[in-house]
Design a protein that fits this description.
The protein has about 350 residues and is α+β, with helices and mostly antiparallel strands. The protein contains nine helices and 20 strands. It is globular. The structure holds adenosine-5'-triphosphate (ATP). Pfam families: ABC_tran (PF00005), TOBE_2 (PF08402).
């Protein structure tokens, strides 16, 4: 294995027919880290991963493994393991042969090949299925084969592109934990692409949030979850209520709410400037403040997710253990520490231009 201390992406840019799919990505990945690339469809996640893997040449920028330039090396010389959404297994080869493929290509001696292949299969709990063909396995089992095949070569970096998106909800949760555990047990360094914020928050040490090919924020799950850098990150991370209004001295006058509301500005905002208040449905508390009428109530087990409207027509998304039903009138309050206030013109510089 070619180990490294840091892998550095320096202004990595990729254009397709003149349009930027990824613009100036700067990122330092430390050995042992689990990095999630997170963002909506088309934001450039796969492009970033493919640039890193060597499957796409860069339009500008460079990639460095410690002091060595990497982006000029072909994919097979980077020593990375890849796991894709569609598994990409060889259908005519058994599980064993799929897993040992990379070792055979590298000319690993027979005895070692057998030992490492068995160990990788054991790791993903597929011992009983070792001689089967991929077509005889379930989706989750096939994804496990793909993971075993990627880690058996003891790669310096494992790249995963939405590896769980073809699995059902229950299996997805199980595999999440398994992948995180494998990452820890094997001391891997992992870059994981997903559009699922929960997946990214629960698995990664650090998240890179992308939008329209540009980094919006890099931070730990807690940083990104509690302090999104702008309203787009907030929107993507579950702040379903994005309420326009006007800022004044740490408060915002939200249109259609009728009362001035205290909040936490994420940066300096000019008094009187247009602003956006962001709050998660589960952070709006019932009781106190402003009266709203429940219009839609969805059952979510322990909680009800509701859509409610103020007298002035402002729609709010709520989430509460209280058994709300359509037609109910309730009062709601916004805890100031949970209500973030963003400047309304809070767009990445290029887009605003
Ligand atoms: N081969 C290509 N030719 C032209 N445009 C491309 C190509 N690959 C990607 N793009 C464009 O680049 C942008 C980023 O695509 P990318 O696949 O990286 O996004 P993504 O975040 O991975 O999306 P998804 O989650 O839908 O896979 C998109 O606008 C896409 O249409």
């Amino acid at each position: 294995m070619t180990g490294f201390e840091t892998l550095r992406l320096d202004g990595v840019t990729r254009r397709f027919a003149g349009a930027d799919a990824l613009t100036g990505l700067d990122l330092e990945i430390r050995r042992g880290e689990f990095i999630a690339l997170l963002g909506p469809s088309g934001c450039g996640k796969s492009t970033a991963l493919n640039c890193l893997a060597g499957l796409l040449p860069l339009s500008a920028g460079s990639i460095w493994r410690d002091g060595t330039r990497l982006d000029t090396l072909p994919a097979e010389r980077r020593g990375f393991g890849m796991v894709f959404q569609n598994y990409a297994l060889f259908p005519h080869l058994s599980v064993q042969k799929n897993v040992s493929f990379g070792l055979r290509m590298r000319g690993v001696p027979r005895a070692e090949l057998r030992r490492r292949t068995q160990a990788a299969i054991r790791l993903v709990h597929l011992e009983e299925h070792a001689t089967k063909l991929p077509g005889q396995l379930s989706g989750g089992q096939q994804q496990r084969v793909a993971i075993a095949r990627a880690v058996v070569i003891e790669p310096s970096l494992v790249l995963m592109d939405e590896p769980l998106s073809n699995l059902d909800a229950k299996l997805r949760l199980e595999m999440r934990t398994e992948i995180r555990k494998l990452h820890q047990d094997l001391g891997l360094t992992t870059v994981y692409v997903t559009h699922d914020q929960e997946e990214a928050l629960s698995m990664a040490d650090r998240l890179v949030v992308l939008r329209s090919g540009r980094v919006q924020q890099i931070g730990t799950p807690e940083e990104v979850h509690t302090r999104p850098a702008n309203r787009h990150v907030a929107d993507f991370l579950g702040f379903r209520n994005l309420l326009p209004g006007f800022f004044e001295k740490d408060t915002i006058n939200i249109k259609g709410l009728g009362v001035r509301t205290a909040g936490s500005p994420v940066r300096t905002i000019r008094d009187g400037a247009p602003a956006v208040a962001a709050i998660r449905p589960e952070d709006i508390t019932l009781g106190g403040g402003v009266e709203v009428t429940v219009e839609v109530a969805e059952y979510h087990g322990r909680e009800i997710a509701a859509e409610a409207r103020t007298a002035d027509g402002l729609t709010l998304h709520l989430r509460t253990p209280q058994r709300l039903a359509p037609g109910d009138k309730v009062a709601v309050t916004f805890p100031p520490e949970k209500l973030l206030i963003f400047p309304a013109d809070d767009l990445p510089s290029e887009e605003a231009a």
